[in-house]
Amino acid sequence: MRVGLFVTCLVDLMRPSIGFAALELLESAGCEVVVPDTQTCCGQPGWNSGDRPSARKLALKLLDEFDDCDYLVIPSGSCAGMVKRHYADIFREDEFQQARVRKLAERTYELTDFLSNILKLESFPGKFEGTVTYHDACSGLRELGVRAQPRQLLAKVPGLRIVEMNECETCCGFGGTFSVKFGDISSQMAAAKCAHIRDSGAGAVVLGDLGCMLNIEGRLRKEGDTRTRVLHIAEVLAGNAPAAKSGAGDV
Asked: Which is deepest, 69, 103, 203, 208, by most CB within 10 Å?
């Protein structure tokens, strides 16, 4: 099985360990993983900001890079949603590219959806001692139906216990350019999300989208919370989650 791994630009620039964790998970499952050196962005920021030409250029580039893969796997619900749901809009007046987009969209999966429903994995390299809560990122949940999959996978990690926070499906306030355009509203939403995370009693919040991770971790640290870990699910499943800071609580 030839699997293309699109690591996303945020992962590449801000937390490469997520990309390496996703690679390890796929390779340990027996996949031949392709990670093109030329990959950059899926075009989502341009698309959301009304820059259609740049979004189209990046979408064409991604199509060329992953055309020959059996599957395209992305450790981000927002980027996976861009390819599966929005590329068709970019090329709605181009019949040839529409056909290519349809074929790729059918083979594109968010990471946990792929691990759960295509590979059907029952065990993982990682171990985790402690309690976590899970935040459902908007794009993965609402565009791709990713909700049960990450919880099913986390339940198979030795030592890990899941507790649900209140309003786990409520937006954290990131929303791509939303957090830039509506900063005050975004800040209040992030504060509410962080309060729910702390109230859950978990030592870590786990999620599947780096934009949400950056937003939530930034707010937690701004509020003086240095104890709560903010982890991508790939890191937890692969067993390479960043270590807790000295003195952290239930981790």
From this structure: 208
